[in-house]
Amino acid sequence: MSGGRKLRAGLIGLGAMGRNHARVLSGLDGVELVGVVDPAGDVTGTLRAPVVPELDDLLALGIDYAVVACPTALHEKIGLELARNGVGALIEKPLAQSVEAASRLVEAFETAGLVAGVGHIERYNPALQNLRVRLEAGELGEVFQVVTRRQGPFPHRIADVGVVMDLATHDIDLTSWVTGQEYTSVSARTVSRSGRLHEDMVAVVGQLADGTMVNHLVNWLSPLKERSTVVTGDKGCFVADTLTADLTFYANAAIDTEWEALRAFRGVAEGDMVRYAIPKREPLLVEHERFRDAVEGKESDIVTLRQGLRTVQVAAALLQSAGDGSTIQVGKMTSPDAMQSVGRP
Question: From what superkingdom does this record's organism come (predicted)?
């Protein structure tokens, strides 16, 4: 970006998430929101940028990058068109609804040499950012287990994917990211209780490359809204609540006990509990700032399309496992067919 020119950004999709993107883009330093694509027009009545019906209309306005917040099933088509036109893209998670579609998007943007990323917003949650720094610093010692719980009422806006692609992709990405480890195997069970085509509840057991055990419980059938990540290790456990962006550490006690019955028990004892004071900036704003910096050519921490593809690959393995009752070995990410299944009778 030369001479202080603002980046020209476009937005595709004005659903619940799209409206949030529009709000953030409208006030983002160094960026001008020049147009929005949505067949329904300006449903908010608050946008200063023109709302156009087709992607071609947006491209005609001249944009440096676009935020793709339309339904997942349209990500591939829209993304490939943007890549063909030399436009970078921040694509909402999941990157695409299949490994094959996600792979084609990776190839298109990499071949065109364009900046592209995936909107895995949990990476920008203050509690998880703080947790990652502490894990990297070895504050937990060896990590034994990561457990996530993500549940709440059914989001009626979602029609084209189930909880695995819509919600569990958050947990897959954040688990890999905070631990710095890839998944090596997964096993999952799903149920459909809401009368919809897709699954609405999933339970996952998995393993990361360093042997860390992983559990994910995800559903949109609960009136209780919960978003928690618990990481247990040598020195205690961290609990991140991503709804409130709170991070708490429960330490293993280092106090000798004189009680003979307890001394014989070789487990851990309850120690100090610390709740950290963390600056709480809006994750979506931080995500946009990082992506803007990347488009400007600055060093920036964005979720790459390859990382987004990896998450889709693990999610596809969950669905495959739930479908046939097997444990799936998730191979190193080289190609869409890098997964093979074990444990079948």
Answer: Bacteria
